[in-house]
Amino acid sequence: MKKEIKVIACIGDSITKGFLSDDEEPNSYPMRLELLLGDRAVVGGFGRSGSGLWSKGKTPYATTREFNMALSWKADVYIICIGANDIVHPVDNGFVDCFLNDYRQLIGTIRKNNPEAAILVATIPPIPGHFVDNQEERVRKLNVAARQVAKDEGALLVELYKDYLGKTELYEDDLHPNKEGAELLAKEVYNVLERII
After folding, report:
1. What does the alpha-carbon distance between residue 179 and residue 183 come to, in Å, rounded to a whole number?
2. What is the pLDDT of residues 135-186, one digit of tens each?
3. Does residue 52 contact residue 59 with C-beta atoms inside 8 Å?
4. How far apart, in Å, are the Cα atoms of 120 and each of 105, 132, 150, 170, 177?
5. Could you tell me the residue ranges of all domains in the chain?
6. What is the pTM of this model?
7. Fold classification of 7-193 (topology level)
8. Residue 81 exposed, middle or buried by CB count within 10 Å (0-12, 13-18, 19+)
């Protein structure tokens, strides 16, 4: 028998926060997800623009007010969509190891706070703009790491990279999904949530 999920917390960077999103124009994927779920769930968006996963980065998500707010929700499900800001760092073996460790620590903090919560890990969508050299290779390596974390931690995987690849019409700018892109992201998350709700 499937458990009814009542509270869902979406955590991550500006892709989670939504680009130019507000209450009147639901351009964030958490807002779109709540519309898809209807009265089956309450969805909170806890995105922090400019944040990353890396604990030594400029704005580690684990230290933000948004993460603390998400933890206080004691959600049934936590959806993690983060990593786009981490590509600005040299993605060598040492960085990938740190990324994996910081991802595991983030999930560990969620589980310590709420051991019964289900966790979904999303891959980083393609980034159409050019921000750093070897950008695609960096995104690929971090997505391999995200998939590994999902497997190791028993989290469900939301595969965004393949669904956005080559679809620049889904972006508002060189990084952020537009309304249609947020809708696709919400649908991909919804499809994975259907396995557990």
Report:
1. 6
2. 888 899 999 999 999 999 999 999 998 877 778 888 788 788 888 888 899 9
3. yes
4. 15, 28, 8, 22, 19
5. 7-193
6. 0.91
7. Rossmann fold (3.40.50)
8. buried
According to DSSP, the residues that pair with 7 across neighbouring strands are 42
- Per the document, the length of the chain is 197
Query: Tokens 């159409």 correspond to what residue?
Result: 128
Cα–Cα separations (whole angstroms), residue 95 to 6, 61, 68, 137, 165: 36, 16, 25, 13, 24
- Measured distance CA(36)–CA(124) in Å, rounded: 22
Please give the Cα distance from 122 to 32 (Å, whole number): 16
Report the half-sphere exposure of 156 (CA within 13 A, side-chain side): 18
